[in-house]
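Supplementary Note 3. Input sequence used for the single-chain structure prediction.
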Amino acid sequence: MFDPLQIPNVWRAQSLAPEASLTTTGFAALDEALGGGWPKAAMIELLTDVYGIGELQLILMLLRAPVPPDMPAPVIAWINPPYEPSAVALAQQGLLDRPHWLITTTSTQDALWSMEQTLKAGACAAVLAWVSSITTASLRRLKLATATGQTCAVLFRPSAASTEPSPAHIRLMLVPRGPRLGVRVLKARSRKPTELTLDVDPLRLQAGGKP
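The predicted structure, written as discrete structure tokens, is reproduced below.
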């Protein structure tokens, strides 16, 4: 059966309605390129072969999502990060007021299962996962889980994945450009692909110290 999701930058008509709620990225140029910011309960792919270049700053506002007074602080789940999360860096960004789950697995299958379950739980501000390979079928399951739990999923994947089809709401290619971060918007709903260069400080928020 023909599936339009297999064609890059092709969207079903009902998917083009304006987002009811967007979270700013903290970068005006990136907000403009994405149509206002990060969509709610979205699957986001950040494609890069280098870490510690400021990539976490792009999702910092997602992690800082405001919490209603009568609600418990949402969890931030880290699945197989390349570095262990640093409590000092998280404290500097005001992120220690919410629980952090560090999940390490020895197989991609276990990592994807962990991601799907944490997304479905609906208790997380965001679920971050670093995966080297993943099938389109698994991506679809994760996208469905974001809708079920109303939670954002952020997948960090190698740049080679840019040639593979993906149902992700947003796909960004990230490359270091000296002290700045090069961002190529490969896919964003109802927006044209574009390239940006953002001023970031990689030391402001890192996922830890030693590999």
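The beta strands are 22-23, 38-39, 43-47, 75-79, 100-103, 124-130, 152-157, 170-177, 180-187, 194-199. The domain at 49-65+73-199 is CATH 3.40.50.300 (Rossmann fold).
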